[in-house]
Design a protein that fits this description.
homodimer; about 675 residues; alpha/beta; 8-stranded mixed beta sheet; 6-stranded mixed beta sheet; 36 strands; extended; disordered N terminus
Amino acid sequence: MSDRKEFRDLATPEAAREAIASLDLAPEPETVPLGEARGRVLAERIDAAIDVPGFDRASMDGYAVRAEDTFGADEVDPAELDLVGAVHAGAAPEVTVAPGSCAEISTGAVMPEGADAVVMVERTDELSATGEGNAEEGSDRIAVRTAVAPGDHVMSAGADIAAGARALGPGTRLTPREIGLLSALGVDEVPVEGKPRVGIVSTGDELVRPGEDLDPSRGEIYDVNSTTIAAGVEEAGGEPVLYPHAGDDYDEMERLLRRAADECDLVLSSGSTSASAVDVIYRVIEERGELLLHGVAVKPGKPMLVGRLDRGGSEAAAEGDGDGAAPRTDESAYIGLPGYPVSALTIFRTFVAPAIREAAGQPEPATATVEGRMAVGERYGEGRMRLMPVGLLDLTDDDLPLVYPVDKGSGATTSLVEADGVVAVDPDTEYLDRGETVSVQLFSPDVRPPSLLGVGEDDPALNRLLDRLENPRYLPVGSREGLRRLRDGVPDVAVVAGPTDREVETVDLGGWTREWGLVVPAGNPADVTGLGSVVDRDLRFVNRPTDSGLRRSLDDALDALADERETSRSALTESVAGYELTVRAFESPARKVIAGDADVGVGLRETAKRLDCGFVSLGEQSVVVRAAPDRTDRDAVAELAAALDGPADLLDGLAGYSRNSRNEP
Amino acid sequence: MSDRKEFRDLATPEAAREAIASLDLAPEPETVPLGEARGRVLAERIDAAIDVPGFDRASMDGYAVRAEDTFGADEVDPAELDLVGAVHAGAAPEVTVAPGSCAEISTGAVMPEGADAVVMVERTDELSATGEGNAEEGSDRIAVRTAVAPGDHVMSAGADIAAGARALGPGTRLTPREIGLLSALGVDEVPVEGKPRVGIVSTGDELVRPGEDLDPSRGEIYDVNSTTIAAGVEEAGGEPVLYPHAGDDYDEMERLLRRAADECDLVLSSGSTSASAVDVIYRVIEERGELLLHGVAVKPGKPMLVGRLDRGGSEAAAEGDGDGAAPRTDESAYIGLPGYPVSALTIFRTFVAPAIREAAGQPEPATATVEGRMAVGERYGEGRMRLMPVGLLDLTDDDLPLVYPVDKGSGATTSLVEADGVVAVDPDTEYLDRGETVSVQLFSPDVRPPSLLGVGEDDPALNRLLDRLENPRYLPVGSREGLRRLRDGVPDVAVVAGPTDREVETVDLGGWTREWGLVVPAGNPADVTGLGSVVDRDLRFVNRPTDSGLRRSLDDALDALADERETSRSALTESVAGYELTVRAFESPARKVIAGDADVGVGLRETAKRLDCGFVSLGEQSVVVRAAPDRTDRDAVAELAAALDGPADLLDGLAGYSRNSRNEP
């Protein structure tokens, strides 16, 4: 292990930002059709090349007149004019309005020669040829019951915007409204800032692309960072280029890094846990570029690399391969991200996305950062900046959202969706107080904090219930841990299965009853008849963790069996092989049984049915949704209660499930 | 005109929303590759199909041990274990850890059989084979200086997320983090809500697509609404389909409407000003669908139509044409928008975009609505809801942004970029007070209010200056009107050219001097020598409006000439043909001269040079940037002042321009 690279002399976050700012990621501007320009940023000023409108235009339906002919006209004494014809939008006028005459005109039509104003149709009457009232078809005299001034109801040529005038400035982000103005100017393609091409090179023997087959026995895992970072690059205004996975072929990895440098403005790799892969990256940068920085004093993200890679000499470049434009400079930027997904996305979000946006000319999104207040106190004191993953919960419109730390260890991919962003905690800050205001950098500007935060037992009926709510978040931490968290004041509700010792003041919103017991292989080959079989015989058992309501009911049943046999529970469990082997979710024991890793597991009748296993019932337990008393007024909690009380189909088809009346845990 | 459709019995805005809500725009869900899933919305719940991780995984670099072998070990009395091999990430373990032994293990590697915990490398020493200290290569004994418990530094299979557990709920919008979790689960394609196909049919004889040639003499204008609304559809999560422009061929228009109904979930047309086009739409809906609503009591947007179009029978359908999926229902929704661009976008934004988002499963964007306070009072009382276009200006971080009405008439396309959104003013509200809090619906969630609001004269050096600022907004209303608006307290700065009568307290930020005079055709064929030529000879003149600083300097010069001749200015101007003919921008008179519509125009030496015209100088005038005294502390104003004081190249190459020292207007 002595040849592994160690990071010493960690750079400050500011130094890392400066190193990244010193890199040149900006591509050449490009020209795109107007129809593809939404969200792009103008590379230069657009001046109007034409007058809009291009002609003096009627802005009302009515009659084009010479204003002086109407002077003095009113309801009592209208001016009478000869109707000499009509002008419609999209047609050249074929009439001239001489003194004493007028022409019918539609909104948007060209003002005919001679006319300098329009009288609204509502202020006119058609007269018969004899000059009398009562409109009829073919009338050739018009009574005008109002006076107009020259220019009335006429939009003169260039009055909207004139040729030569500044229309849009450089750096303008194109939304539908700017696209509207450009359309009015007849512009059908626009010069925009280029999208930085960002190559993503995936390193690490253990990574497999989603959709491919995985061999867990070899320690293979799906490659999370490539797709996550590609989506982040796209969101920041860059164009992600995913390079094929090099696997454990280091020559191929080196070739890919060089090709990515040739073809892209920025090359990203996310830290392999494999030391040899890191060595390849170091070697390529040392031989063919410059390492500006290795290691930053932030948690997570220590193993971050920043450097430059020279261009030229890769096979791709030699062959003229690659579909991008010719690179603008003779080097590409390189940033190495940490390997764990939350760390990689955090470092990307904090250091890399701003640089991509800057290069793309894109402004920082308005929703990138939100203020919140700490729901709990948090101690920290490692002397380096901590980018602390946090979840958000909006309690009221008037107050800042609650912020709570999410610390599942950076290896957990679920923290990607259980946290909403990170709080940058200063190296000098040892303690964040409950209630303190903090600034949360969202993982992406699209992140929406959940409407409801629930914690507790996992359960198939609960999954259905959650599906009926809009944007809930549920953390399946188990019944006991759920109640603990509810007491600490962060979540809205806890879902509790089975009996509980904890005294926590809650409001029961309702629930159901589920049948639990022992899940065995289909046909029950070991002829398991009850808990006695597990205790007395040499069967491999698989359990659920102590926080789980299923475990609590199992232990109660073991207590009862111990009483019956006049012994202790621990005396019984000592003889159960696998009693301490706990697995995470409600289906997990059954899956262990199916895989042949165990003979008996604790579980639900519903799971046994769904996965075609045998089942030996040990009883029923209630599952109750319990709300924090100060949250019952929230819309999302009311919505949850309504869904619980709602259509009876919540439990339809779930084996062993029945309705539970309210307040009967 | 008696056959034109009139809208009576206008529906309430609520009735319009209900009519639109009764339409079914939702397409079938579809399956997309994970790489294209960003921003889409899950159509169903995704449960984990595999355990993540799929194996018991080392979460530290170190040694895999049997925990009980380390019990009692500490710095003083380490446990010594035989090193039996190594396990790397991405490889199947080839060793078994028997009692008293250990295996080197990398972060992420599979725990070898027998081992149940990992000791961090930092808490171990390599020993020589003889059991002494000092690490060397090939050591086969490891000293463990700490005790570990079973499970320490091991992430057990399924601990992140277990097979069968709920991963993401239906309705989840996919951002990079959800894409990360789906990748971890090996999901490479996802079921998402479909994008509603929205057909956009462009009606109106006068409309020409951007990029094509325009004939203003026929009253042609570029089609603004098709591209604007297409961008808005895309932004709301729909898929816009632009149908070819039918021009004045009503049979073709009818065929297109029917084809669009066959191929799309929603058909939009934007109101033609041509009565016959409206008639075609009415006839198609009456014959082949149902009109739910015509006319809504909002301003703008009175001429809004809501209805349904039956499917089937179009040539396209008969031929199996169209690239979309087979329509889900036997009818398509239809909404007719007003014709003026601001009206069309406002009605789209208020009534149609929410329906498209709903059908696409997309949530209302967080930034769609912002609060602000009225910068001026605004009176209104037409008894119907007004969607008042407004601009926004963020003065401080602590206060709500200023909101000011933008009322250029709905025919102006520039109000698209001069306004940021609309305030819905209730029919009962006759007056909005200055300082009153209002809610602004942004034209699109991407809209960013300007950093700086300037008003006043238009000028080529000013255009350059604006290019150097980030996101300014400048309204070229002329010097006089600019000062008036500055006094009323909305803009930050006014740019004033030439002398002024207005007494407005301002802070001068600096400026320049520009040479002005008469622009004539190249070579000065009429041999214009000065203002006298214009007054005395039969030349066609073209002027600028009275708010313009150029006009003010011209009038001062005419006053001087009148004094010289002992007459009045009006006596002189009466003999100038075109003195009252005013055009909008600083280049406009020159362009009239070039077009042959005038012999002489008022203008700048710089314009004459740029457009290759002749020029007769009449003097110089100052252009001064004047800030409102209470805005000088704003960052954007300081940035503007710095840009004025900054690099001397602001005026480089501008003919007749020179630096103006500060405070010398």
